Amino acid sequence: MGKLTARPATPDGGQLLEAIFEAAKDFQRREAARPIIVALTVGGEEHSTLPARHVLDTLRQSGAALHVMIVSGGALRSTVTPTRPSALLEENLNLSEVLGDGPRQSGGTHTEIVATTGVAGGLQQLADALTHQYRVDYAIPDGAKPSSRLSVSVKRKEVTLRAPTAIPDR
To answer: Under a CB-based contact definition with an 8 Å cutoff, are residues 43 and 77 in contact?
Structure first.
């Protein structure tokens, strides 16, 4: 693991969308060999104006796999009264889209943990899975029409395949 960072604390719990977006941009800029983003959240409200599509596109371009761990069982994060209720709805829809679609589109995982006591075990399982992965490189055959979609499958029952659903432009 090259770098482990926590997002800074803010009165409303921070902006998870911005953290994912900035990490993906940083990975893209550095051309990281095996970029992984782990988002651990305890629920609550998100106060971000960043559109989900923008975050997901940047995540795809970076080639990073997004692994989301959600601790369910009530919002543990503090909340702030929104200035416009419609803004809060849009902000939380953006967060739900990124946390829901991001792992699937990037080849990551989405895990729900029932209690905070399960966080260490969940993180250990993720670490074990990441350390036992193989990287598969591929090339488009000469004369084949390039596509932004990717479809990969395996026949062995004991093998789990995680792959992005779209190819980065890099």
So the answer is: yes
Nearest to 63 by CA among 97, 40, 100, 29: 29
Where along the chain do its domains lie?
16-131
SS3 150: coil
Hey, which of 7-21, 81-95, 104-118, 145-159 has the most confident mean pLDDT? Answer: 104-118
pLDDT in tens, 3-12: 556 555 555 5
Name the residue among 53, 74, 11 with its Cα closest to residue 166: 53
In whole angstroms, give the CA distance from residue 110 to residue 105: 11
Report field, pTM of the whole predicted structure over 0.85 = no
Angle at 110 between CA 138 and CA 119, to 5 degrees: 125
Query: What b/e string do you get for 84-105 counting C-beta neighbours within 10 Å, with b at 16 or more?
Result: eeeebeebbebbebbbebbbeb
CATH topology of domain 16-131: Rossmann fold (3.40.50)
Amino acid at 62: S
